[in-house]
Design brief:
By secondary structure, the protein is of the alpha/beta class. The chain has one domain: Ribonuclease Z/Hydroxyacylglutathione hydrolase-like (Metallo-beta-lactamase, Chain A, 4-Layer Sandwich), CATH 3.60.15.10. It contains seven helices and 15 strands. The protein has a seven-stranded mixed sheet, covered by helices on one side. Strands 8-9-10-11-14-15 form a six-stranded mixed sheet, with no helix packed on it. The longest helix has 14 residues.
Amino acid sequence: MKIFENIHLVPGPINSYLIERENHCVLIDTGMSKSAKSIINTLKSNFPEKPLEAVLLTHAHMDHIAGLETLGQLYGPEVVCHESEKPYIIKSAKLPPREKFFGRAMGIFEKLMSHSGYTVDRIVVDGEVVHGLKVYHLPGHTPGTIALEDMETKALFCGDIVNSNRKGNVLLPPKRMFAIDYDQALKASIKMLQISKPSVLLPGHGKPIINPKDVITTYLEKYS
């Protein structure tokens, strides 16, 4: 799905986004390990002459990083994350437990299924611009969760700090069952939407929200 001329949503159950730059491409999140095939196909179909130079990770949950192994072997991209998330991606530390029972159970499943760890090449901090994307550090879902705003189009890649419904007309808060600190995550989502004025909202789950001004207003009125 083409969001802008240079931004594509990769088909799959978890949202990954490819961004075309002048001489290369950048990927936001990898999805599960099986998602790598869709990412590779999208690259070959839309940007056959442009290498995948970087993968930016919004957070360390398995459904957002598990495609790294295949993509790393094939393209060798720079892997980028927030400094507070790096230990959980390279697996030098375990993510703090989630709030709810189902979330804790999913965390145990992830530990059983996950890779021994991935290489991180670059860490970023709040406000930094990397590969044309401004970093928003928004802890709560995980300690180093980030959103990324494309400086050219003002598209906002949200990771799991907010979600949307299947129609892309309702903005939903972070899921409590998957958050290490739901109240902090909710406050972070509000902060993000108060600071940023996005042209589109591109969540990790749910349909992209095009022309999000009214949807954001409704969200802030409900949750602020």
